[in-house]
Amino acid sequence: MSTQIKAVIFDMDGILIDSEPAWQLAEQTVLNSLGLNLTLEQVEQTTGLRIDQVVSYWYQRFPWPHYDNMDTANKIVNEVIAQISATGEPMLGVIDSLEACKRLGLKIGLATSSSSRIINAVLDKLAIGHYFEALESAENLAYGKPHPEVYLNCANALDIAPSQCLAIEDSFNGLIAARAATMQTVAIPAPHTVNQAKWVIAHHQLADASQLPDLLQTVSA
């Protein structure tokens, strides 16, 4: 890549913490209690979307009585926070990657579809909040990922041009958002999806974050 990287912007769920299983279980538990019968494969379709968008997505396909998007979304978030607080662990290579960013003088940001409640739960559980110079959530934006606004807001907060930011994502919706923001991108997809053709839109694809420090050395030189 020709543009030198000056900042790294991390997605959160599935990148900093292995919370995707928690989200999937919470969504299945809450939505199926409303009469849906969602499989894991179906729930994976909405990975990377903001939680209110997830609830709306499934309501449009399988309407249920007494629809209350906010109440349903809050129940899912509460489930996820409980699981994160109990068993949350950093993804492989995350701490080394954050340290590598510091060592290389790269600014560090977070751009996530998750709410501030989830952000706080994750950063507190992993004790990594001190690494980040900007924390941006799409929770109060008009559109979440795959819209690029949350990434553009993070770049602005870091005072770095989007083209000089490297976005680290595990979801296709997140990659679309980062590409639309004109950022350079790294995909670290879930192991069972690594061979899917869609990841070709990323500038780089890694097996896990333990490979990120070497890549950062190259793109920030």
UniProtKB/TrEMBL annotation:
The keyword Metal-binding does not apply. Its EC number is 3.1.3.22, 3.1.3.50, 3.1.3.68. It comes from the Bacteria. The keyword Hydrolase applies. Pfam families: HAD_2. GO terms for molecular function: 2-deoxyglucose-6-phosphatase activity; mannitol-1-phosphatase activity; sorbitol-6-phosphatase activity. Signal peptide: none annotated. Keywords: Hydrolase. SUPFAM superfamilies: HAD-like. This is Hexitol phosphatase HxpB.
